[in-house]
Amino acid sequence: MQNEKCATATPDDTYISGNLQAMPPKVAKGEYIETDTGNKVSRKSNIFGTQHIILGGKTIIQADCTIRGDLYRTTPPSSSSSTTTTTTSSSSSSQTSSTTTATATSTTGNPNIAIAIGRYCILSPRSLLRPPSKIYRGIHSHYPLKLGDHVFIGPDSIIEAAVIGSYVHIGAGSVVGKFVIIKDCVKVLDGTVIPQGMVIPSFSIVAGRPARVVDEVPETGQEMMDLREVYRKI
Predict the structure, then answer these.
(1) CA gap 25, 131 in Å, rounded
(2) Which CATH class is domain 11-73+89-232?
(3) Which of 42, 43, 157, 208 could cross-link to 93 by cystine, CB 3.0-4.6 Å?
(4) What Gene Ontology cellular component terms go with this record (predicted)?
């Protein structure tokens, strides 16, 4: 999303050298659409298949962030019903206001939910969220992507994980492969590539191409990764 224009600030001023920074205090009028549950969605974001996306509330989607809610797992048609096809929605800011807002836990058992995002998440400019996929019974199928609360996705990152826990910081330019599971309180450093199917334990700091655990998040990690103050400044 096009972020706030304040002095010489740029959209990436929210993220510098792997650390969350104070956001510019002013936002260009009309820059974001704000939903009833406090989600702030850039008019310049690219959101597809809004009916298959759940936002938990108070999440920020910035300019040029792409969310592929149109890539959801379709249920096999019954003999009396017509063939189910994947719906591809056009990218438009007017769609964002209709994005489903509910708790992420409501996705359980619902194959039509492609992406569930918790509360106080920040999706940075040019990041991409795309549900993971694989060949299942000869059919290319997509599976849900779930983000917990207080998840920061850095600029230019590509996310195809199965589950990202709460209080997770993913650095700029990182790639999170298909069906990756990231537990709570994890920091992924800039440019990290997490290979398909990897499980990252809680309180880990990971880096590298491919990723490996290089350190531990301190006990104060959850407090450090709390995004409520950042949300309030946008």
Answers:
(1) 33
(2) mainly beta
(3) 43
(4) dynactin complex
